[in-house]
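Supplementary notes for students who missed Thursday's class. We covered one full example, reproduced here. Read the sequence, then the structure, then the short commentary at the end.
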Amino acid sequence: MLAALGIGGFVIAGRRGRALGFIGLIVGMLGSIALLLLMGYESATLLALTSDADVNTRVAMAVDLFNEPFFLILLLVGLGGYSLALPILAFALWRSRVIPIVVPLLFLLPPLFSLVPVFAGVPWIVLSLLVLLPCVWASVQLMRPVHARSVRRRASGDVPAQAG
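Structure (token representation):
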């Protein structure tokens, strides 16, 4: 949630990439809220499993909680929200000239690897690392001093050089 707010606010404060920043911010916030509600739902399941009832009753209660469509809806909205918000915010950062275009395009690798039958045997850890790579790259670019970004923008002609 903090990352969506930070990146969204950073992009929205600039001139370029505002629309993508707003969209990414809203999608990221909805995903965060859904995952927070999901954690509450799982806490209720934990309470059901640690209650004083016998084992069969506790297991039946947990199975009933996870069979509810509400759990699946929260899970899909939360994970889908993050899966969409990260590339959208990366494209917003690219539009605001903070990161190169290759960073948002790297977010396309995990879906491609999971959809192409040739790569069907790729372990989940590799897919997770493929998502982590553009996140780390964008984070490093955001942590660079503001002066370095403004020099790069001035060199590209986006921001006029100040006299003096």
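Commentary. The chain has eight helices and no strands. The chain has a mean pLDDT of 77. If anything here is unclear, bring it to office hours.
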